[in-house]
Amino acid sequence: MLPYPDRIPLAQTPTPVEPLARLSKRWGIELLVKRDDLTGAALTGNKVRKLEFLLAEAQARRADTVITCGGAQSNHCRATAVAARQLGMDSTLLLRTPDPANPPPVDGNILLDKLVGAELRFITPADYRDRAAGMARVADELRARGRHPYVIPEGGSNALGAWGYVRCVEELSRALSPGHATLVYAAGSGGTGAGLILGVKLLRLPWRVVGVNVCDDRDYFVRAIGEIAEEAIARDGLDVTLAREEIEIVDGYVGRGYALSQPAELRLIADAARTEALLLDPVYTGKAFYGMASELAKSRSRFGERVVFIHTGGIFGLFPKAQEIAEVL
Ligand SMILES: Cc1ncc(COP(=O)(O)O)c(C=O)c1O
Hints:
Strand content: 15-25%
Bound molecules: pyridoxal-5'-phosphate
CATH class of the largest domain: Alpha Beta
Largest sheet: 6 strands, mixed
Order of helices and strands: EHEHEHEHEHHEHEHEHEHHEH
C-alpha cells in the first residue's frame, strides 16, 4: 500500500488502456494509449487527478475559494474551476494574455470557466512571471473580504498534486502485462512527470518515463520535475531516491513556442484522428505525440518495444484553433 494523502474522488478512474493497432503496425512497435482524456467530460485530462489531492487539502482547511493560474486557455484552470464548483467552492483564475485590455475570445476552456462562474482576471506575461506573488495578493484581498482562499500553483504541480500521477502508474501496473514499457507524456509544468517517475520508483516497475516538453527546455524540466519529486519524497517520507540524470526529457519539439502550432503538428493531429479516432490537442498531447513520432521515425527502437502514450487531455484547446486546423484538412 502506497502512503497516499487524503483524496476526494473527482476523476472517472481507472481510465482505459487501449492499443493503437494501426499506428503500432506503421511504427513497428506495440503502441498503447492511457486514456486520461476520459477522466471526465468538463473535467477531462490530467489535472483532475492532481485536484483530487489538492482539493481534499483545500476542503480540510475549510477553504471556500480556490485561486490558481495558467495561460488564457489553461486546461488546469478550467478543471480547477469546474471541480471547485462541484465541491461548492468559488474560483479565481489568473490568466496570462498579451493584452489584458483586449482579452481573448470566450471560447474553449475560457467558455467553460465562465459557464461555471469562475472569476477571471487576465494578466500580462510580465505579471505572470511573478505569479506566486500575484496569487498571494489575491488571497490577501479575499481574506480581507472574509473569504477563505486556497492557492494552487500553476498546473497543480507540487508534491501533493504529483500523487495524482502516482495513482495513474498504479492503475497502469494493473492493466499492463509484466515486462518493460516506456511511458511517454507531455511536460507542461512538471507535476505529471514527477508523479509518473515517483510512481514507477515506488512500485519498483521496470519502466522508463519520457517527457516531451511543450515549452521551455530540457534543463528547465529536469529541474522542475526534480524539485517536485524531491519535495514529495521529503514531505511524505518516501523510500526512494531520484537523481536528476534519471529524468528523461526529449527536447526539440516546442516548435514555434508554447500553444503555437506548426502545420506538421496539426497534420499529425489529423492523421491520429483519421487513423485511430485518437483526438489530440494542439498545445500538449499533439506536440508530445509529434515529438514521439519524429523520434520513432529516426529510430524505431528509440523507446523500446512497448510504448504507452499518456493522453493527458486538452480537447477544449482544439476549438480556439479550429480555423488553423481546418487549413491542414
Ligand atoms: C492536456 C495537458 N497535457 C499535459 C499537460 C502537462 O502536464 P504538467 O503541467 O503536469 O506537466 C497539461 C498542463 O500543463 C495539459 O493541460
